[in-house]
Input
Amino acid sequence: MKKRILVAGGGGFIGGHLAKTLLARGHDVVVADIKPFEDWYQLDEHAQNHSVNLEERATCYRLIEGCDEVYCLACNMGGMGFIENNRSLCMCSVLINTHMLMASKDLGVRKYFYSSSACIYPDYRQLESNLVALKEGDAYPAMPENGYGWEKLFSERLCKNYEEDFDFKSRVFRFHNVYGPEGTWDGGREKAPAAMCRKVIECIDTGKMEIEIWGDGEQTRSFMYIDDCINGIDRLMESDYTDPINLGRNELVTINQLLSIVEEVADVEVKRSYNLDAPMGVRGRNSDNTLIRATLGWQPEIDLRAGMEKTFHWVKEQYYRRKYGEVVVK
Output
């Protein structure tokens, strides 16, 4: 059945892939993002595209009118350097989900998706590299990442309060480090997978075979390829489950191991220097997938090596296109 669907944050990485998927299925897709169109990663002329500020209440009501489903992925975010240095800016994103929930409830939206983050988990559960994977119930007692994590946790609670007060059904995923092509790879907001790819490509291009790693490189994370992310959103939206669920691959690696994978893809070796004063986030973070397997009968499947190979070659293409004078989104 053809639906009218709003993708908020559709000029960004995950939102752009989601909008493309929904358009391919024949839906009437409205895409909104605060960035100017030339900074969108994927801009499809078949969508109704809007460069607008979704923190504004009136804008949310205008765009949501007539929509059957709403996907709220819009927020101020980036890699660890951005998050740690822009906490108030990240917190202001609470206006987006608040106003979108208000409009969705008032205008009769049937399905609402909110993209939360593993940054809602307490720092005190993430002090070791070889940590126990995080279960959904570990979010409380609350002590999320300052700024961005608090905004995400508050917005999760608001979704739940709307369910309790208005019988409004929302779906919430806690994303764990999504990566892949058509995303930020330079400029300060990029995350570790894309940053590692770009740094190795710079080494090859300049002949200076040394890169800086933030921290000692032994901090751990899990990384999920974008196709798994879109697949998971699909499955959750078709389910009746309304509490937050982890969406992440549980393949735990150190940052040093992530770089080794990129070296293997590029067939090079680089010298590593370590900046112990740089932002590095929590010591370890991994996704416990018990609940998603029980609820959706599925979990993210794409191997990190395979996903990083695709990501590396995409970043490499963007890097050299920019070097030779093309205007590319970074």
Summary: Residues 9 and 74 are 4 Å apart (CA to CA). The longest strand covers residues 111-117.
